[in-house]
Amino acid sequence: EVQLVESGGGAVQAGGSLRLSCWASIYTSNYNFMGWFRQAPGKEREGVAAIDTSNGQTYYADSVKGRFTIPQDNAKNGFFLQMLSLRPEDTALYYCAARNRRSGPVRPQDALEAASYNYWGQGAQVTVTS
Question: Among residues of the chain, what percentage have pLDDT more than 90?
């Protein structure tokens, strides 16, 4: 069974930065899409960033554009989310997700949709204080 495990969450003051890591039990070359989602208390899970491993195309939610980055040079069995200029509204449980290549391509408009992903991590808490 494929497993994803997040690390790197924590508490930071507004304006600070964090780097989340997602470690997979299989090589990331098995995935055609890798993404990050978050869920704040009382809110629905939302996609914040994703990368198409076939061409390096990245996708970001408007709320994080210019602040969050998925590096293209990911590890063999891991991928990351670099978060800069964090805001209190970024406070949430962050999940990494991946899609197996065998599941076929993803339309660009679906890159940040949870239904596009097969595998999920357990979540890492990010808390941003003002």
Answer: 89
